[in-house]
Every structure is written in structure tokens, then in C-alpha cells.
Amino acid sequence: MGKTSAWKGQKKALRCTQIRNENFKTGLISKVRGDIMAIPKNVLTALNKQINAEFLAAYKYLGMAAYFEDKNLPGMASWMHNQTKEELVHGMKFFDHIVDRGEKIVLDSIPKVVVSYPSALAVFEAAYKHEVAVTKMIHNLVETAKKANDHTVMPMLQWFLNEQIEEEKSTDEIVQKLKMVKSDSAALLMIDTELAKRKEA
Ligand code: FEO
């Protein structure tokens, strides 16, 4: 490295330290670290909130699995068990991101969830509605991170944006199939068999 580029590097590092200290003073970041990896306070709050949302989703899907177990629809129950595991993985992605950046985890309480529904269709409609709400949360998180210039969190959030396309698509496809089935129990059992084929998360 030539003298000029080495000096440019030092100047950049110095500017980063100044920005970090300014952000700490104004409360934009929660603590001073040796680099610019600290998570801005409002992003940290939103990330911790998202851990709770993902674990709540897991609990909701477990409630749906319980409903299908009770109705002797093992394929749909298995689909919901897989979805439960997937949501736990999502929650842990946020957890690990916060820990890896040296910040504090907050684990909020998880409320009671529904375990009884009027029909299989109602369950998947609730699942779809839930996924739409999660997509909105991820979009809000992206906005918060953008405003706080938290570039480090972006690749993970991009992963979640893509994941939500899949989450909405898969639940909506099942909703549409169940709408066609109506009260045809033979067709319902066929869907149940099909959903049993879903691979483990
Ligand atoms: Fe974690 Fe189903 O979104």
C-alpha cells in the first residue's frame, strides 16, 4: 500500500471513530465499540421485537398443529410442526445477529395462542394473514435500519424479505386449494397426504 492510500485509510478510520462517538453522545447507538458494528438503538429494539414475533409465530403454528392432531389430519399437523421449527430458526437468526454484534438480547413474553378453529381452511387463512403481518414487520425493520444507516444488518434482512415471498406464497396456495375443496372430505384427505410430504426445516 502506498503512503497516500495508507493515509486515506487512517483518515477513514478516524472519521468512523468520530461518527461512532457522536452517535453514542446523541444516543443513536447504545454503546461505544472498537468499530462501527454497534447496532443503532432503535434497530436493536426492532430486532429484539422480531425475535419475539418469530417465537410467537412458532407458538401459533404449534397451536395449529395441535388442532390438526385433534382432527386426525396428520399431514397438515406435520406441515405445521415443520413450520413451527422454521419459525424457531428465524428467531435464532435474529438472536445470533444481535449476539454476534455484541449487543443485549431482550426476550419478551409470549401470549396464549388459539388451538381451536372452525375448519382447516380457517387455519391456513390465519397462517396466511400472519405471514402478511410478518412481511410488514420486516419491511418496517428495513426502513428503520436504512434511516439509521445500519448497513451491516441489511444482508440478513434481505434474506428475510426473500423468505417472506415463500412464506406468503406457500400458505396462500394451500388456502386456494382448500377453498376449491369446500366440504369434500376425500379431497381434503388428498391435500392432507400431499402436505405430509413437506421436508423438514
Ligand atoms: Fe418467520 Fe413465517 O415468518
Characterise the protein shown here:
There is one protein chain. The chain has six helices and no strands. It has helices at residues 3-25, 41-70, 74-100, 120-147, 154-181, 185-195. The chain is elongated, with a radius of gyration of 22 Å. The mean pLDDT is 88. The chain binds MU-OXO-diiron.
Please describe the topology of this protein.
Elements: H1 3-25, H2 41-70, H3 74-100, H4 120-147, H5 154-181, H6 185-195
The structure holds MU-OXO-diiron (FEO).
Features:
single chain, 201 residues, mainly alpha, Ferritin, 73% helix, 0% strand, binds MU-OXO-diiron
Shape: elongated
How many domains would you count in the coordinates? Answer: 2
Helix tally?
Answer: 6
Overall structural class, as computed from helix and strand content, comes to: mainly alpha
Separation of termini? Answer: 47 Å
Helix fraction, binned, reads: over 70%
Strand content range: under 5%
Helix/strand order, N-terminal first: HHHHHH
Spell out the CATH superfamily of the largest domain: Ferritin, core subunit, four-helix bundle
CATH class of the largest domain: Mainly Alpha
Mean pLDDT: 88
Tell me the CATH architecture of the largest domain: Up-down Bundle
The CATH topology name of the largest domain reads Ferritin
Based on the structure, what is the oligomeric state of the protein chains? single chain
Number of strands: 0
